[in-house]
């Protein structure tokens, strides 16, 4: 009789513990997801800041080089002297758009479009590794090292 009541008490305790463990696992996973989301945001913010700094330096270079090219053009009066300004302008405009424009927004939209409509581009070659394939590769490497030990 006592065994029957203690069995139900043990079962209730076990179920309570199982529920607690499930809640803790859920909380742990949510924290992990939030941590990684915040880390990605910080990395992206740092990348944007780096591009803005590079844009400022490139703008200064463009102004100095452009003024030198323009002064040379006014002395020699040959349009070919202005040709370096064309590629320099494209590079400067690219980094300006990347730093202060909508380029990152367009990149994100394109990435979303790829993820929705072109999922085959995102697949890993030979699918995802399985536990069995990882273990077999580990065992194979271990056997290889036993058969052919490194020479010291």
Q: How would you briefly describe this protein structure?
A:
Helices cover 81% and strands 0% of the residues. With 152 residues, the chain is mainly α. The termini are far apart.
Task: Summarize the topology.
Layout: H1 2-76, H2 85-100, H3 103-117, H4 131-147
Helix pairs in contact: 1-2
Verbal overview:
The chain has 4 helices and no strands. The chain is elongated and about 100 Å long. It has helices at 2-76, 85-100, 103-117, 131-147. With 152 residues, it is an all-alpha fold. α1 (2-76) runs antiparallel to α2.
Which structural traits does this protein have?
single chain; 152 residues; mainly alpha; 0% strand
- Annotation, overall tally of beta strands: 0
Number of helices: 4
H/E series: HHHH
Alpha-beta classification: mainly alpha
Main sheet makeup: none
- Outline: elongated
Terminal-residue CA separation: 70 Å
The low-confidence parts are: none
Report the average pLDDT across residues: 91
Q: What percent of residues are in strands?
A: under 5%
Helix content: over 70%
Radius of gyration: 31 Å
Quaternary state, please? single chain
């Amino acid at each position: 009789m006592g065994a029957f009541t203690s069995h139900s008490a043990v079962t209730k305790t076990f179920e309570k513990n199982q529920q607690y463990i499930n809640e803790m696992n859920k909380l742990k996973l949510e924290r992990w997801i939030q941590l990684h989301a915040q880390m990605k945001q910080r990395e992206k913010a740092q990348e944007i800041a780096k591009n803005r700094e590079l844009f400022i330096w490139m703008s200064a270079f463009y102004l100095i080089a452009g003024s030198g090219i323009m002064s040379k053009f006014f002395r020699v009066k040959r349009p070919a002297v202005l040709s370096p300004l064309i590629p320099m302008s494209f590079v400067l405009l690219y980094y300006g758009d990347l730093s202060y424009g909508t380029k990152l927004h367009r990149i994100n939209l394109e990435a979303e479009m790829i993820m929705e409509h072109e999922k085959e581009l995102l697949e890993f070659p030979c699918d995802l590794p399985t536990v069995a394939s990882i273990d077999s590769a580990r065992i194979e490497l271990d056997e290889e090292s036993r058969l052919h030990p490194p020479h010291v």
